[in-house]
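Schema walk-through. Below, the input block comes first and the output block second. Nothing else is stored per chain. Lengths vary across the set, and this one has 394 residues.
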Amino acid sequence: MAGSEGPLKGIKVLDLSRILAGPTCTQLLGDLGANVIKIENPATGGDDTRQWGPPYVTDADGNASDLSAYFMSANRNKKSVALDITTPEGQAEIRRLASHADILIENFKPGGLAKYGLDFATLSQEFPSLVYCSISGYGQDGPNASKPGYDLMAQGYGGIMSLTGDPEGAPMKVGVGIADVMCGMYATVGILAALRHRDQTGEGQQIDLALVDAQIAWLINEGVNYLTSGNVPQRRGNGHPNIVPYDVYQTADGHVILAVGNDSQFRRFCDFVGQPDLADDPRFATNPSRLAHREALNAILRPAIQNYDTETVITELEARKVPVGPVQTLDQVFATDQVAARQMQIAMQADPAQVNLIGNPLKLSKTPVTYRSAPPTFGADTQAVLNAENPFED
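--- output ---
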């Protein structure tokens, strides 16, 4: 297939990042065809997440490798090079790699690479076309610039925890490192925009991306709800701040999600639960009125829905074109024919065993993503890269 190696084939990425935000970005670039060299610290055994297990990949005798599931979630399509950048030799090698690279991405504390001569100000003088992406907790400037950045800290500082969880419970983080992941997505967009500028002008630039800034950016409607009204949003559990009913409801044998987005859907929903008069009740006839009487409506709906099993609710509401869905555990998710059809679970041959990974969601009709190499063991490509005249060649 034309373009089967991806739309970013030929783009070379020098990855000095670790943990999740930067690696999420560079894995996505790698999936799109870029050649990624990941630099790992030999003094620490590499990326921190190699130690964030179990589970780990094991060999036939049950011996664990350094491939934790966490590490593998963000590090396919990369070469691993063990290199100590605190030494003159390591710094010289980074500059050699940067001379070949289109992109350098790092997540050191602001100013942390300056003492090694590997900061943007220094490298851009030598390599003016280099796109240099810096990810940090709070950005390269501002009063908090020197503070460390972790996903949980970003979720707390940026406000999403205040919106998440049971109304009567404690503030709650999202179940995965979503601040990191979304920061990686913003980094990818910024890098591609900077590459476009570089291709037009020959000029590189620095992308300054803060974990907290990215988290604040995806407060989306709740953030603008506050900025518009001045009212601080409260935790609503699974409830929606602007739509009712839009929540998780208990059935006779489990739970379902209802997402009734307009008044006609609400009327059809009321018909299903055998209470068509609710759609004409002035308290519930429109979405604004339902918002104003959320508790009164839920007091009626929750016991009504518990009269039906989950399959019945889903089947009947789908037939009425009312948005409804299941709440699945991960074993159920990955067993679905939808996951198989969309190739959202993939298998790759790693060292020392085959591994199952989550697929890339991008479906490009002309230049599809590719899975060329499994997540590498620590330092697996060190000698091949350091001894190569062109270190980014496959």
